[in-house]
Each structure stands twice: as C-alpha cells, then as structure tokens.
Amino acid sequence: MTAAFIGLGSNLGDSCAIVAQAAAALDALPHSRVRQASSLYLTPPWGVQQQPPFINAVVEIDTLLQPGELLQQLLALERAAGRVRDGTRWGPRALDLDILLYGQDIVCAPGLSVPHPHLAQRAFVLLPLAEIAPALTVPGLGRVDALLAQLDAGDCRRLDAPAPLQRAGG
User: What is stated as this protein's family in its record (predicted)?
Assistant: First the structure.
C-alpha cells in the first residue's frame, strides 16, 4: 500500500455535500481505503478570480493503485459529479480531485505530475494537508508545515462543519 494525498475542491452546487460524497467515494475505490480526512475549508478562488469561493479538503488514502490508475479513478469521480473538462483552467467546477502526493514518488507523465506542481503555492491545499500531516515531507520541497508558513493563508477559513468522512457517514 502507498499513502497518497488527494486534494478535493468544489465551488458549484452544494460544495460541502459534494466534497463529502467524494471523500466517501475515495474510500470505495478499488484496492484503496481512506486513512484520514481534513476539515473543510472555505477558500477564495485561485487563478480566475470572478467565481464563487471554494470548499477544499485533503484526504489521505492507502492504495495499491498505481499513479496513472489512481488518476483515471479520480477523473471518473469528477465526471460522475458533473465535471466537464473543456480545457478551461482554474474555472468553476462541481468537483476537482488532484493527486497531491503519492508516497515519496516523483511522477512526470503526460497529464500527471506528482507532487502536484502548484502544491507549495496554494494555501487552500497546504492548510488541510498540514491539518492531517504537518511533518510530511514533500519531495524536493520540504515539510508541509514549513511550506505553509511561507504563505499568507489569512483569506482561508476552516469551517465548523464535520470533516468530510463524518458528514458522508464514513
């Protein structure tokens, strides 16, 4: 089993419910199980600013799926949630799932880069990641808590809502 960290985000529809359902769906992936999930965070959009704020979380899974197989499973979950990939980057979406880390592996393949290439620049990823794995080392970048300390996360807010798996009933 390899520990993989998945970023979850949504800013269309009932985003809290969508993220909770996606966390539960991660637990149902073949040869995988969720180990832990962060709280939900309300965060401003990144990239395209003229869109609703996001709900973000991070889930740690143990998986036997290889990175490419895991990516295909995540893309299928996005499609099932209504995500249409039309080439638009950083726009509104019902569900966004990203492989942030896959063990300590560095993956450079068509359509997949791990660690996620923007991980160290995004407070909306590092806040929930630091909640569940602050001492985790990101290959080539350093510890999660140290990366977060370099960013301004003042416009991100942890919600009082239950963590995604609690809300999804897991």
Answer: Belongs to the HPPK family.
Domain for residue 168, yes or no?
Answer: no
Of 14, 79, 86, 96, which residue is the catalytic one?
A: 96
Q: Is 155 a catalytic residue?
A: no
pLDDT band at 108 (very low <50, low <70, confident <90, very high): very high
Catalytic annotation on 35?
A: no
CATH classification at residue 95: 3.30.70.560
In a domain, 93, yes or no: yes
The answer to whether residue 145 is catalytic is: no
Domain, as residue range, for 64: 2-161
Report pTM: 0.91
Q: Is 93 a known active-site residue?
A: yes
DSSP labels for 94-134? S-EEEEEEETT--EEETTEEES-TTGGG-HHHHHHHHHH-T
Structurally, the chain folds into a number of domains equal to 1
Marked catalytic residue, from 83, 143, 157, 158: 83
